[in-house]
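Project standup — Tuesday

K.O.: blocked on the structure for the chain from last sprint. Re-posting the sequence here as requested.
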Amino acid sequence: MRAERVSAAADHGALAPGRLDRTVIGITRRLPNSYFGRKLAMLLRRIVTMRLADGALDVDVWGMRVRLHPRDNRCEKAALFTPQMYDPAELAALAGEIDQVTAAGRPFTFIDIGANVGLFSLFVAARARRNARIVAIEPEAGNFERLAFNLAANPGLPIRPIRVALGDREGEVAIEKDPQDRGGTRTRSLDRAAANAARVACRPLLHVLAEVGIDAIDALKIDVEGAEYSILAPFFRDAPPALWPRLLVIEDTRTLWPGDLFALMAEKGYRVEARNRQNVILHYETMGTAAATSIPLLATEQR
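H.V.: unblocked you, prediction finished:
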């Protein structure tokens, strides 16, 4: 593993942007997060993506060295060209929590479920100046390989990558990839999957956290294309309140859930702080304050 890390660190830069690529990226990263800025960024980035032979570029994002593949992953495309537009409300909420925790003199504990190539985890590590404890969970082999490369290109990060799917029981599930967007990869039960589908181990979140010694969580992000309920409902049923995260960022795929996860969160004492068309941001209120019925709609991030 050490040899792989050294290799990845040394290889970063092999796919450095050319002059035209750097010019376009420099422009798109300065655009405002507005309707005009998003539309112009979408037009300009095509200049790079249409001619990108190797499918990836080595760049810096949030002070971290990353290799991003904009042609088959919307998250990587957004981080490459417009990191200022990448989930801005969610990252701002995380930044506020990080600053509070690190000012108190303790490391920030973050659980990244559906880590993809590690962008949220890298942001937390950068913002916390590596004074963090991060678990990045990603089941799909290709995404996990990209995640591992990005971590290895930044030696010493406090991020533990785990390749596993999460669910309500121990077992196996199938991986269903979205050919247009690797970020849309989802898991399926084996009885609903194609016979040749890739399989991966599936475990309850509480079991994984116990294995890696997590006994308190400052923030948790979950983006698993509809499996949020099957992961979080058993966790909040079985985990002690001391383990409940103060901040939750949940992908809003409620039409795919077998139950009302947001009602459950309200019962547990979570207050909805904000939402956009993709995610809902919640804070844990120890007095059990119910979630607000009127939720502010945030500007949609550009991807």
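K.O.: great, moving the ticket to review. The chain is about 35% helix and 20% strand. Residues 88-103 form the longest helix (16 residues).
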